[in-house]
Amino acid sequence: MRYRLLGRTGLRVSEMFLGTMTFGQEWGWGASVDECRKMFTAYAEAGGNVIDTANRYTEGSSERIVGELLGSDRDRFVLATKYTLTMDGTDPNAGGNHRKNLVRSVEASLQRLGTGYLDLLWVHIWDPNTPIEETMRALDDLVRAGKILYVGISDAPAWLIARANTIAEFRGWTPFAGLQLPYSLVKRDIERELLPMAAALELSVAAWSPLAGGILSGKFTRSSADGPFRVERATVSERDLAIARTVDAVADELDVSSSQVAIAWTRAHRPWIHPILGARTLDQLTDNLSAIDLELPEEAVNRLEEAGAIELGFPMEFILDTTVDFVYGPSGKQVDGRQAG
């Protein structure tokens, strides 16, 4: 396991993050505490140092289990959790990105995790009802108070993130250092706006669901797959199954698992993307961790990307199609320009 810097900070984070939405059995498909301990140990022994959880995961059990597993080694890990999601649906102020919910959520998370500070706090999802200025100032106050060290945001539009960091830079507040976004061969939407923005602003990306809820693990395309599944077979499209079969074919040629191919692809072009490994068993996690050493041949990458191709849409397709000839003229072909994400 190698390490990269988180965004424009000096914090060292491992190539892969350990996701703990499966820690706890309250949601019906998670792992027991004993299995969580085995997965945590395997990840740590592989050199991983980022543990990613959230206040709402398994209704708080994930944070409690993570806190227990960290124990006296807490300072050796980059502990990340999230706020936004409500823990009390009867209280209108128990959810959202406003200051009141932030303070309450962080204090509750610290208690469940058994720690005095968070290394990284993610805003879990964009809350259109809270001004981004309020969120950024409130986050900065907690950084100055020593409750959190770095901040990031998950599941938000590119324009909002760019605006938030511009405001933070202008006012001397703590900016977002990273993004947490869904990314896999079957869900490549972030290539349109979010990844180019992340590259331009030097933001790290934590990729959640790199196996697309297990679709790319072979569970629906190989007869050996067993449940329980988070994704129902009936909801999986023929397009997604076709992509999964291409992943299977590449995996068979390379003599590796389908999961390893799918995870390795997320980092094929952008090493600043960190796949979040969210396994239910030790065997699954061990297999996923092996993707660290898998470098896909260029031909395989091209096949995979062709199978999962998406349209960039406007404005990127319009800009890319017209830039060289219409905007720059013949001389444009002689210029080595910047790469957009």
Summarize the structure in words.
The protein has 341 residues and is α/β, with parallel strands linked by helices. It has one domain (3-310): NADP-dependent oxidoreductase domain (TIM Barrel, Alpha-Beta Barrel). Helices cover 38% and strands 14% of the residues. It is built from 11 helices and 10 strands. The strands form 2 sheets. Strands 3-4-5-6-7-8-9-10 form an 8-stranded parallel beta barrel, surrounded by 5 helices. Strands 1-2 form a two-stranded antiparallel sheet. The longest helix has 17 residues, at 238-254. The protein is globular and about 60 Å long. GO terms for molecular function: oxidoreductase activity.
How much beta, percentage-wise? Answer: 5-15%
From the 3D coordinates, which CATH architecture would you assign? Alpha-Beta Barrel
Radius of gyration: 21 Å
Q: Low-confidence stretches at least 5 residues in length (pLDDT < 50)?
A: none
The end-to-end span amounts to: 24 Å
CATH fold name: TIM Barrel
Helix-residue proportion: 25-40%
Order of helices and strands: EEEHEHEHEHEHEHEHHEHHH
Count of extended strands:
10
Count of structural domains: 1
| CATH homologous superfamily label | NADP-dependent oxidoreductase domain
Number of helices: 11
Quote the average pLDDT: 94
Spatial order of strands in the largest sheet: 3-4-5-6-7-8-9-10
InterPro entries: AKR_Detox_Biosynth, NAD(P)_OxRdtase_dom_sf, NADP_OxRdtase_dom
Domain NADP-dependent oxidoreductase: 16-307
GO molecular function, one term: oxidoreductase activity
Keywords: Oxidoreductase
